[in-house]
Specification:
The complex is a heterodimer.
Chain A: E1 4-6, E2 11-14, E3 19-25, E4 33-38, E5 45-50, E6 54-58, E7 61-66, E8 71-76, E9 85-92, E10 99-101, E11 105-110
Parallel strand pairs in A: 2-11
Antiparallel strand pairs in A: 1-3, 3-8, 4-5, 4-9, 6-7, 7-8, 9-10, 9-11
Chain B: E1 5-7, E2 10-13, E3 19-24, E4 31-38, E5 42-50, E6 53-57, E7 64-68, E8 74-78, E9 87-94, E10 102-103, E11 107-111
Parallel strand pairs in B: 2-11
Antiparallel strand pairs in B: 1-3, 3-8, 4-5, 4-9, 5-6, 7-8, 9-10, 9-11
The chains are: A mainly beta, B mainly beta.
Amino acid sequence: QKEVEQNSGPLSVPEGAIASLNCTYSDRVSQSFFWYRQYSGKSPELIMSIYSNGDKEDGRFTAQLNKASQYVSLLIRDSQPSDSATYLCAVNRDSGYALNFGKGTSLLVTP
Amino acid sequence: KAGVTQTPRYLIKTRGQQVTLSCSPISGHRSVSWYQQTPGQGLQFLFEYFSETQRNKGNFPGRFSGRQFSNSRSEMNVSTLELGDSALYLCASSLSSDKKLFFGSGTQLSVL
């Protein structure tokens, strides 16, 4: 079974701090990696995608990928209370469009 | 541009019944995937369709089936419902090889 592992949290950070979310995956051939945000009672929303080793920045979000260590992370700078949500790490299963999801990390940003 | 549309939004069924859920993808998206989300198991992949063909299937029993029509709309069917089938069923569509999924609002199924 190809796994995607995340710490369930909750991860609590003060407003304005950097939130660091981590994810490991077991399938070495995975090529596509995603972070989704899911608010309570809502569906997942894509916030970042990364396909090659290194960092990818988009506004306050930075995704980091290390394929050798099979590790993906998401940094949220200047965290806001509105960032409080569950963050899901997803990794492609194969050559198709299906993804394996981690169970998510709950993030709480306190004012 | 309209997003992914799923109907119905809520559904209550009893054990042994069957249910059909519908999904209309974003215009131009040819890939449609279905996922089951429960508090205990998280998001689990059910199946994926592309151009009316099932391209990939997850580890679910044969009671779960799906299909895709020529206009890319998709349906999934669950027969002989069990209590454990109570979950949020999410449909996602994708346009290109970047594998980005865009989810609908989901159908919340309760089996009594």
